[in-house]
Amino acid sequence: MKNILIFGDSLTAGYGLPASQAYPSLIQERLKQEGYTAYKVLNGGLSGDTTAGGTHRIDRWVNEPIDIFILALGANDGLRGIPTRETSQNLQEIISKVRNKCPEVKIILSGMEIPDIVPGRYAAEFRKLFRELALENNVHFIPFLLEGVAGNRQLNLPDGVHPNAEGQKLLAQHTWSKLKELL
């Protein structure tokens, strides 16, 4: 069995939905449909988690072998206005820890964005930090995990922040488009 760890926050955990509707479960289904039965998707989503929390939490996940690592943290950092340098350093630490424990791992970084309505340069710097990390680490990259979902009422729960079941399908689609290249 090969492990695919999707490590993220409430978006990965499927906040407000049954686990079967969260995008890691949808990807597991897709793998089965496409005949990739040797892969097991591990949902490492924790609602409310930040990249700082992730640097500590990753330790217990890398005790078992990980073949493909999908890093989908950062949304809560953006919502809280955490300095981009800090977010970037935390994500780098997570990537380094995973590579250290699983040298053969293939990595996908899921980019996050915050709305441009946020004043100043923060939104642009936040968007850029994911692109720079992907290049520096030579990892596969999803530019924006919530592409087409963020801000779309039909695809989010009433809170306007967390994807509903239909929105989760798009997250799965964005992730699958990169993941299939690595199988």
From TrEMBL:
<feature type="domain" description="SGNH hydrolase-type esterase">
    <location>
        <begin position="6"/>
        <end position="170"/>
    </location>
</feature>
<dbReference type="GO" id="GO:0004622">
    <property type="term" value="F:phosphatidylcholine lysophospholipase activity"/>
</dbReference>
<dbReference type="Pfam" id="PF13472">
    <property type="entry name" value="Lipase_GDSL_2"/>
</dbReference>
<dbReference type="InterPro" id="IPR013830">
    <property type="entry name" value="SGNH_hydro"/>
</dbReference>
<dbReference type="InterPro" id="IPR008265">
    <property type="entry name" value="Lipase_GDSL_AS"/>
</dbReference>
<dbReference type="GO" id="GO:0006629">
    <property type="term" value="P:lipid metabolic process"/>
</dbReference>
<dbReference type="InterPro" id="IPR036514">
    <property type="entry name" value="SGNH_hydro_sf"/>
</dbReference>
<dbReference type="InterPro" id="IPR051532">
    <property type="entry name" value="Ester_Hydrolysis_Enzymes"/>
</dbReference>
<protein>
    <submittedName>
        <fullName>Arylesterase</fullName>
    </submittedName>
</protein>
